[in-house]
Amino acid sequence: MYLLYVDESGSAADPNQQHFVLAGVSVFERKTHWAEQRLNEIACRFSPDKPYSIELHGSPMRSGRDGCKAHALPDRINAIKDALREGVANHSNGVHLFAAVIRKSALVGEDPVLHAFEQLASRFDLFLKRRHHKYRDSQRGIMLFDKSATEQRIQTLAREFKYEGHTWGKTANFAEVPVFLDSKASRLIQLADLVAYSIFRKYESNDDGFYNEIRDCFDSEGGVVHGLYEKL
Predict the structure, then answer these.
(1) Domains of the chain by range and CATH?
(2) b/e for 59-71, b at 16 or more Cβ within 10 A?
C-alpha cells in the first residue's frame, strides 16, 4: 500500500495571502519506519532526550514561534532543509510528491481547499493506476491528513469521487476514505507540512530556498510532471 501524507500551507480564508497549497508525500508502507527514523535524528538536534516533544513544523521553525526561537535561526533553517533532503530528495526512488498550488483570485465561487483536494486525489489515483498497468505493481492507497476543520467534507468528497466520480472519472484505488491524524504524533505528516510550506514560500514570497531541495521530486514519467498542479 502507498500512503499519501497530506498537509496544507497558507490560509484559504486569509485575504492577506494570495496562495493556498495542499501537498502530499507518498511513501510505500514498508518504508515509513525508516523515513521516521531519519526525521527523528533531526529532531534530536533540538531535544536529544525528548525528540518526540519536537514537532518539525515549517512556519514556526523559520519564524521562531512556538518555542523555536530558543534555537539559532541558521540551525532551524538547516533542519528544515535537512528534513527535506533526508525525507524526500535523497530517497526519491521511493518517495513521490504531489501538490496543488492555488492562486485564490484565480478561483471564482469555488473553495480552494476542495479544488486542491480533487487535484491531489485524482493525481494520486492516477499514480496508483500507472503502478498497476506499467509495473504490475497492484497497490491500494490511502490519504492521511493533519487534523482539519474540513475533515467531514473531504471524507464525503472522497466517497463521491469513488461512487459518483470527479471531473475526470472515478477513483478506483483507494483502500479507505482519508484518515485524519494529529501532526504531533506523525513525523510523516510533519514532513508533508515542510513540503507544503516550502512550496508556499516559493509562490507566496518568491523564496525558493526550501523548494530547491524538492523541486525534482514530484511524481513524473517520461518527462511529464504529473504531481504538481498550478492554478495561477
Answers:
(1) 2-231 (3.30.420.10)
(2) bbbbeeeeebeeb
> What residue type is assigned to position 47 of the chain?
S
Q: Nearest 5°: CA angle at 170, between 167 and 175? A: 130
CB 52, CB 31: distance < 8 Å: no
pLDDT, mean of residues 153-173: 91
Query: C-alpha angle with apex 104: 99 to 106, nearest 5 degrees?
Result: 100
Q: Tell me what the pLDDT averaged over the chain comes to.
A: 93
CA 218, CA 226: separation in Å to the nearest integer?
Answer: 7
The span from the CA of 79 to the CA of 209, in Å, is 13
Residue 5 forms beta bridges with which residues?
A: 25, 144
At position 222, the amino acid (one-letter code) is G
Residue 188 · residue 88 · CB < 8 Å: no
Residue 224 CA to residue 232 CA, distance in Å, equals 19
* Percent with pLDDT over 70 in the chain: 98
Q: How far apart are CA 214 and CA 13, in angstroms?
A: 27
Pairing status of strand 220-221 against strand 95-103? unpaired
Give the pairing type, strands 2-9 and 141-146.
parallel
Question: 179 has which bridge partners?
Answer: 144
Q: Can you give the pLDDT at residue 93?
A: 64
232/226 Cα distance (integer angstroms): 17
Q: Are 125 and 172 in contact (CB under 8 A)?
A: yes
Cα 158 to Cα 129, 189, 228, distances in angstroms = 17, 19, 20
Q: Which grid cell is 34?
A: 525508516
